[in-house]
Design a protein that fits this description.
By secondary structure, the protein is of the alpha+beta class. It has three domains: 85 residues, no CATH class; 67 residues, CRO Repressor; 50 residues, CRO Repressor. The chain is built from eight helices and eight strands, in the order ααααββααββαββαββ. The strands form two sheets. The protein has a four-stranded antiparallel β-sheet. Strands 6-5-7-8 form a four-stranded antiparallel β-sheet, with no helix packed on it. A hairpin with a 5-residue loop joins strand 3 and strand 4. Helix 1 runs antiparallel to helix 2, helix 1 runs parallel beside helix 3 and helix 3 crosses helix 4. The longest helix has 24 residues. The protein is extended, with a radius of gyration of 23 Å.
Length: 222
């Protein structure tokens, strides 16, 4: 019994260390790869804790290996947008301009009940109030309300907006995603050139419904 107790303490400390090393996301915010590793770690720790005939090293080495792989893949994903999309997927727009993309819902195997349930968690009970909605890579739904249903703010009183989608990302971490809104790729590149910038110099660039660019330059770590 004492051996089981000691093994439990060691494995508990190891799993806590592993989870802290992997990051601070909640369970519902885990990417698919992170969720798989979390499940595997819990199963390995349970096996090594329950069966005293299994050497403790047999449980600790796989856990440390999985955590190392997760940290390594996280670093690679940080450097490569393509690999990040391969591992974690891409956010999918399911409502745009207030219109539900039924084809996208079917491709995601997302039912109307799933959509309504996700909106209700954000206190949205009428889907006609939604201007824009995205299914994130974690499976969560992010919704943007039409201006008339948004909380009143001083800026909204001064210049009320017409119903339009939120700004769209055209450049992310130096990678040109594509044209969006009223601007073509050439127009975006021309605007960057006017500011003496290349796509690789841009950390984030978004364009709103009026075709206005908002550019955040990359910062040097030096």
């Amino acid at each position: 019994m004492l051996i089981v107790f000691i093994r439990g303490i060691i494995l508990y400390a190891l799993v806590i260390f592993a989870v802290r090393l992997m990051g601070k996301r909640q369970l519902g915010e885990l990417a698919p790869s992170e969720l798989v590793i979390t499940i595997l770690i819990s199963n390995i720790a349970t096996l090594a804790m329950e069966d005293v005939s299994v050497p403790l090293i047999t449980g600790t080495v796989p856990i440390l290996t999985l955590v190392s792989l997760d940290v390594l893949s996280g670093y690679v994903c940080l450097k490569s947008r393509k690999i990040r999309h391969m591992i974690s997927g891409r956010p999918k727009v399911i409502i745009s301009d207030g219109v539900i993309d039924q084809k996208m819902l079917r491709s995601l195997r997302y039912t109307v009940d799933d959509l309504m349930s996700a909106l209700r968690t954000q206190s949205i009970f009428d889907i006609s109030q939604v201007q824009y909605a995205v299914v994130e890579t974690t499976g969560a739904v992010s919704a943007y309300l039409k201006p008339e249903f948004q909380p009143m703010t001083p800026s909204a009183v001064k210049s009320p907006d017409q119903s339009s989608d939120p700004p769209k990302t055209v450049i992310s971490d130096g990678d040109f995603i594509g044209p969006a809104g009223k601007l073509s790729r050439d127009e975006i590149l021309k605007e960057l050139k006017r500011k003496h910038l290349e796509p690789g110099d841009v950390f984030l660039c978004t364009v709103d419904a009026d075709g206005k660019l908002k550019i955040t330059e990359k910062r040097s770590d030096k």
